[in-house]
What does this fold into?
Amino acid sequence: MGSARRVVVKVGSSSLTAADGRLDVQALRDLVEVIAARHAAGHQVVLVTSGAIAAGLGPLGLTSRPSDLATAQAAASVGQGLLVARYTEAFAAHGIRVGQILLTAEDTVRRGHYKNAQRSLERLLDLGVVPVVNENDAVATDEIRFGDNDRLAALVSHLVRADAMVLLTDVDGLYDGPPSRPGTRQIPEVRSPADIEHVEVTGRGSSVGTGGMLTKLESVSIATQSGIPVVLTRSSNVQGALDGTPVGTWFHATGRRTTRRRLWLAYAAKSRGRLVLDDGAVRAVLGGSASLLPAGITGVEGEFESADPVELVDTEGRVVARGLSAYDAAEIPGLMGQTTGDLRDALGAGYDRAVVHRDDLVLVRRPRKV
Ligand SMILES: Nc1ncnc2c1ncn2[C@@H]1O[C@H](COP(=O)(O)OP(=O)(O)O)[C@@H](O)[C@H]1O
Ligand SMILES: N[C@@H](CCC(=O)OP(=O)(O)O)C(=O)O
It folds into this structure.
């Protein structure tokens, strides 16, 4: 981490809000001081920051985070300008300029949008500017918005080909269960997803943050599967995290760079149906190198055509992966449960193919939610 040329730092609402739920300007300045020093040492930093909604509460006379989308969007709209004004001031005190980039999930994966976002981020970095990124809350609809910035940060890390990502929050690192539960312990290092199979997380953390640890682990999974290591820690540890001292939880990169098409499949494509897998097929798919064969399918839902995105679910309906179906929905009941050899003999050579080929499949297994 100490030598990483380009780092994406994501700071959550929980680290930027005071006890009254409003923006904590001192916390923001403390963070900026550390990032500014990193910048001065010749490294590039992209800051993904939450806090727009928090910053909008005071001016709108609201006392807590709105639960309805329209009011949350209004708060974000009022707060985003204020948030960026605070960052502009804080970085200017160190002689650094910032540039605001507001993105939706689609912008980070759809080709035309992706190229645009990539170009402007690159240019800002070339010009020595610190990009300050947030989700475009005011326009993102409920259907497509992330709502949390964790996954957005991972997609931005992919977009800028970051060497590492730092997720800053209000806990020291990943614990083996919700930290409020007595006896839970912090995990210092994660080498593969199997290391955290036993970990329990909540989907909602602090009163101001969204997503809790669940979305952070999804973010970690996108980044590490794209070859980007991650440090997850408390925001007061940002210096240590950037220096590479052992703070928080360090997640090793597990894969090589994922293609944008696979990111699209995992995070932006709208599924047209579902394939229900038996336990053996779930194990094979999660193993990471197998295609989904007709023999492992026990059910099909929805009306999709071949090449449409579908969800692969286990017998309890949990989504384990997403992929592009090689068959129309109507054809699958006639293939289910049969080996490719039997299908070839009965129906012809074209029927010995997988229903979802490995190259058209991404794992989206979520950690255990309590
Ligand atoms: N296994 C776990 N390890 C660490 N934190 C967890 C775990 N499960 C749930 N959490 C909760 O996740 C919270 C952080 O999520 P969140 O409030 O969304 O933060 P942020 O605003 O920084 O994105 C922590 O305060 C913690 O209570
Ligand atoms: N875009 C929103 C961020 C939403 C949010 O709370 O995210 P996070 O703190 O990362 O869980 C905002 O700026 O308020």
